[in-house]
Amino acid sequence: MKLNLFFATLLLATVSAFSQTNFEPGYIIQSNGTQVDCLIKNEDWKGSPTTFVYKLSENGETKIGSVATINEFGSKQSFKYIKATVQIDQSSDVVNNLTFERNPEYKEETVFLKTLVSGKASLYFTFHENAPRYFYSVGDGEIEQLIYKRYLVTRIKMGTNEFYKQQLANSLTCNSVTENNFENLQYKMSNLVNIITKYNDCENSESIVYNKNKQKAKFNLSVRPGVAFSSFSMQRRGDELLHFDSDTGIRVGLEAEYILPFNNGKWSIFIEPTYRSYKTEKQYLYVDMITFQKYTTISVNYTSVELPLGGRHYMFVNKDAAFFIDAAVIMDLTTLDSEITSTDEDSYDLNVSADAALAFGLGFRYKNKYSLQARYHSGRQLLNYDNINSTYKSFAIVAGYNFL
């Protein structure tokens, strides 16, 4: 319990100290039209943020911006958000929630729209009801949603309202933009960005594309050797509790990590097949059936290939260094030749069958190449017997080298 409390306190302290995204030079345009240079906390928002954090100087106090006080905020060509009052389709795009209504179900909302392309024709984006929503405007015209909606034709057949093609064909009229450009146009960011920039080029209007530096998913493959400090205890019903000596053993893992393509690469998921070994023994004084006291040596051999599967959160100090915390569920793929044996008492010859466990880690990464981590594993049963309780715990120091 004390170790759990210490580890949780350490995690919270680290999060408080380091869980911040870098502030970038940017600007805000206030409700009165005044533009102010500032530093904006870029959180690589997935959809439309309701608020954002900024400060007027490096050492200034942090402030909160919202649609109530800010008309626009951005950071050069990295990102740009504008305040807009628009009609947004409220329809769900989840297959199980589709309805027979073909037309959008509009609701007026005031939101920050992410600008994807700025020019004579502009393209905007938000994420609403688990679906991407794209908007456009031409010249000084109003911002309108591009209509794309899936709906039910029958209970087993789905239809698609692709009115966005007609909207763009009617609005983007220019010599080099032909009808063929709209027939196979997909309701995807890259396709819509391309058609908007094609029109702007045709109209000799400069296009500023804000998503060209969009965060991409990354894949890391790391070898992760380490040292594990393990302990084990067991108790047969009616017998005394046996605490075995702690053991220091090796562990070797191969971790595949997928960095998710949003929030500046601060989140990832990972899987790490790991070999680990724990061996210990203890002399036990027991009473046999004739009431004689005898010593037996109980040996524990637990060797396994386990499979942690979990998520990780990075807290960047600068572009080269980051602290991270992670959590995982651990299951044994195989326990190899694991067993518990006794020299003189057959009732302590036992088969090992490990339960799943949880793992919590705290670490540091440098240049996306090197890492060092402390990881704590919750206690778990190693024996599947009704009359025996057991607890196996471990704590590991793990080094890592990313070779991709």
From TrEMBL:
Residues 1-19 form the signal peptide. It comes from the Bacteria. Keywords: Signal. The keyword Signal applies. This is Outer membrane beta-barrel protein. The lineage of its organism: Bacteria, Pseudomonadati, Bacteroidota, Flavobacteriia, Flavobacteriales.
